[in-house]
Amino acid sequence: MPVMSRDILKLRVRYPNGQSEIQVESHWNEEELHRAIARVTGIAAGCIKLKIGFPPKTLELGVGTVGEILSHGDMLTVETVAKEEKEKSSIPRDDIGESAPQNSPVEAESSIASQGTFVRRRVPDDNSCLFRSVSIVLQLSHSVDSLRLIIAETVGGNPALYNDVFLGKSNAEYQRWITEPNTWGGAIELSILSSYFRTELAAIDIQSLRTDCYGEGQNFSMRGYLLYDGIHYDALALQIAEDLDVTLFPTTDRTAHEAARIVAEDANHRKDYTDTSEFSLRCGHCGAHFKGHREIEAHAQATGHLNFREG
Fold first, then answer.
1. Are 224 and 133 in contact (CB under 8 A)?
2. Residue 225 Cα distances to 34, 113, 222, angstroms
3. Which residues have C-beta within 8 Å of that of residue 262, sequence separation ≥ 6?
4. What pLDDT is recorded for position 77?
């Protein structure tokens, strides 16, 4: 429900060169909202088109107010449209003034990554780290179970692509398997979630420093970053304020990619990864110990046990 009692609403704004947080007054109209967004993004108010929700829908306040339509914490996506000829549809340059950030779209070489520091946002080691990390990066309200269900339904809806050879098990068996709370996610799941949410997901491997970019080549405009230590995923975020992270960046933003890679390099130097060719895991079901991923996979296929832990 929209927040009606608040005088001030805090909104998140995602735009071509990054993401910011703004405060708006609940009684504002559409023009006032656009002008506030213009001051943050550097995009002229007359060129702003707003979308909200998933799948994104065009936001039009009409004669309503911000407080009647929006809720505290809502995420707005900014698209640029051709500037209208009417002068009133565009704000004067002075209205943007010095408030326009350095990552204004007119500065093609700029990047919001220069405004903060990339950090590792750790998630619990509970066999759902991939799903929790993706949720942070994509700023989702989806539960882990709902993300698993999205994957299962996607696989079930395309048995020709997701066949026995591709999945390593039957399509039906995979659907049951991926919805189990102890099942780990990996490349297949990242690929499906990337396509479903139309956002590239770049997983940087700490040991090899290789970046696997899921969704690449599908003309997605934004990319999020994950850190992978061999058996665990964490989210990567650009911290630009104590309580504000940016997790999505234009796919063309090389500065963001290099900054994310630096976090992986630092972890690599500290040997903060698990060598999967030598690591040991214990089966959480029967207590048996295994060395290397081949022994673990063989045990899982033979017994159906899926809960493995270090030790």
1. no
2. 29, 13, 10
3. 118
4. 86
At residue 124's C-alpha, the angle toward residues 119 and 126, to 5°, is: 145
Apex CA 200: angle with CA 161 and CA 112, to 5°? Answer: 180
Record the tokens describing residue 79, joined without a space: 């698209």
The distance in angstroms from the start CA to the end CA of the chain is 47
**Residue-level pLDDT at 180:** 95
Give me the torsion for CA of 224, 229, 230, 234, rounded to 10°.
-40
pLDDT tens column, 131-162? 999 999 998 988 999 999 999 999 999 999 99
Predicted pLDDT at 104: 35
- Structure confidence at residue 71 (pLDDT): 84
Look at residue 297 in the predicted model and tell me its pLDDT. Answer: 64
- The three-state secondary structure class of 78 is strand
Alpha helices (H) along the chain:
30-41, 66-69, 93-96, 129-138, 144-156, 164-167, 171-178, 187-197, 254-269, 293-303
pTM: 0.61
Below-50 pLDDT ranges, the chain: 1-6, 84-109
> Which are the catalytic amino acids?
126, 129, 232, 305
Cβ burial, residue 52 (10 Å; 0-12/13-18/19+):
middle
Q: Which residues of 3-28 are buried (b: 16+ CB within 10 A; e: fewer)?
A: beeeeebebbbbbbbbbbbbebebeb
How many angstroms separate the CA atoms of 21 and 184, rounded?
A: 33
